[in-house]
Amino acid sequence: MLSHVTDSGFWLVSRFFGMDEKTTLKTWTVMETTLGLSAFALAALLWPVLA
């Protein structure tokens, strides 16, 4: 779940918030990991109910 500098969202966040690449990589990676794990947990919880 590690972000890469070729990710367009990475550059959007970087330029919008005026962050350098190192700070953006740390921030963007944590956010993407959190969102990914949250979505997975929600899908895992809903699967037995809706399937």
UniProtKB/TrEMBL annotation:
Keyword Nucleus among UniProt keywords: no
Transmembrane segments: 28-50
Endpoints of the signal sequence: none
Record's keyword terms, sorted: Membrane, Transmembrane, Transmembrane helix
Taxonomic superkingdom: Bacteria
InterPro entries given in the database record: Glcn_transporter (IPR003474)
Pfam families: GntP_permease (PF02447)
GO molecular function: gluconate transmembrane transporter activity
GO cellular component terms, A-Z: plasma membrane
Record-given protein name: H+/gluconate symporter-like permease
Species this chain originates from: Janibacter alkaliphilus
